[in-house]
Structure of DNA 3'-5' helicase:
Amino acid sequence: WRGEFPWSSLLKLHLSQTFGIRSFRPMQREIMCASLSGHDVFVLMPTGGGKSLCYQLPAVIGEGVTVVVSPLVSLIQDQVAHLEGNRVPASHLSGPYDQEHYRQTMSMARSGELKVLFITPEKIASSGALLGLLNDLRDRNMLDRFVVDEAHCVSSWGHDFRKDYIRLRCFKEMYPTVPIMALTATATARVSHDIRQQLRIPKCLVFKSSFNRPNLRYEVRKKSPKTVIDDITSLLGERFTGNDGRIQSGIIYCLSKKECEDVAGKLSRLKQRNGRKLSIRHYHAGQNHQEREETQLMWSNNEIQVIVATIAFGMGIDKPDVRFVIHYSLPKSLEGYLQESGRAGRDGRKSWCILYYNYGDSRRITFLLETGAKENNVTKEQQEHNRTALDAMRCYAEEQVQCRRVLLLNYFGEKFTKDKCRGTCDLCENNQGKSFHEKDMTEQAKSLVMVVNALRLRATRSYLIDVFRGSMAKKVLKYRDDKLQHHGAGKDLTKTEAERLLGKLLEQNVLEEQTYRQQNEFQSIGCRLLVNQCRASTVFNGMLKITLPYLST
Ligand code: ADP
Ligand code: ZN
């Protein structure tokens, strides 16, 4: 996609004239050219990577209208304001609006005056007039492309599934010739596969950029209930106090509403170095809309410095100067953690992602997930998925040796090596100069591979680890997996070690993850492990040794 296209010079022109930007970021040009050539494209880029420009610029140089679906009215308002600020004709059909706005938007869209039309997914279902407009535009060759922003909302495996997004499959079904551009900052293979299936664009071009955020510092701190508040207090008072003596902008994520209120209450007594009291507020779904909106706005304007929130606080925040994201409690998944911690440092300046961890928190979440599953009739697959996700999160928190970035990025299928971290996570920093040794795990690896072979369809991550470590859980007995030859072969390994071993085998391509369509309401994508027999044979014949790093004492 690097060659010259008829629109190459137009792209360059509008990049600087309309958007005031000098050069493209990695992949932006390629993505635009692919879409302008009529391809369906799928864009995976981390928060702050510059996704919006990928559809805004093609929209400007097109003859017709670009229709953008976005999940939140507030997100849409920001985008419309941004485009209008650059004198690009844009409007929206979302949330409540008056007749005049509606009439004007429709007529501007029909005449082709409008370049970008934002809609929420509900409107597709609820507004016959909208479908009429789309048909009319299509018939006149004026429907340039559909854009699905925050596309992970279409997947029930994503962290923000929205039922109305399922309707978006109608784009490809009803308008097969109109190209689709789907964008997300979610990185898992399973979710991205699912998105392409749900939007009916399995053969689209995929553009995935690195999810590494070099300006973020990762750190896990031990959480002891008695001292955690003091610990946060001193972080705020020292590391996160700016030269003006004022505490910088940040988010503290908590698990429950009550926890938010508690933590905010305790920290509100804090005096800053400039003598003033810290301005801090909590934010959760138990508050009314107006209250939440006000808190978010005040925080965006720096009137509130620190916000203590549940994950209800999230999507659509694009404050550039968030200097820290602290997790007071363990998130439920690395997907969630990547997303939430990623809200720090959008401006590219050094910022911190700190996680407080103790084992009790992980048990507490297991309990919450289990009771939640009972109350809400959660499917077996979803429960399994939740368990696996939490296991991975726990591994990240408990890790002692490997680099945090490596753990995080490898989990999302990105090949990333420790040398690129350059001491910007706590483990790399602390382990600098210490010596490691590689422990030979080849025998355990062989057993693990045999268990995968034996379990076949049941070889999901967490179940595999259970059987490998000799679990006698009900499911194990039911399928008589306790009778397998290698049941319990890994009983001398801790769960974390077993998971590291599994991770290593995936990294070495001895094991592979395979996704498949599940027979449930959403036909979502399941995930199981397979043996790459060719790679595995190199382990069995001694050509490939499997080792894990340990800290030498
Ligand atoms: P995302 O949606 O991927 O989180 P945005 O589209 O909001 O990211 O872009 C993040 C910031 O980067 C915005 O302020 C945007 O104007 C800026 N940006 C995007 N592309 C470029 C570019 N090529 N050069 C400079 N700044 C850019
Ligand atoms: Zn590191």
Remarks:
- The chain has a mean pLDDT of 91.
- The first strand starts at residue 41 and ends at 44.
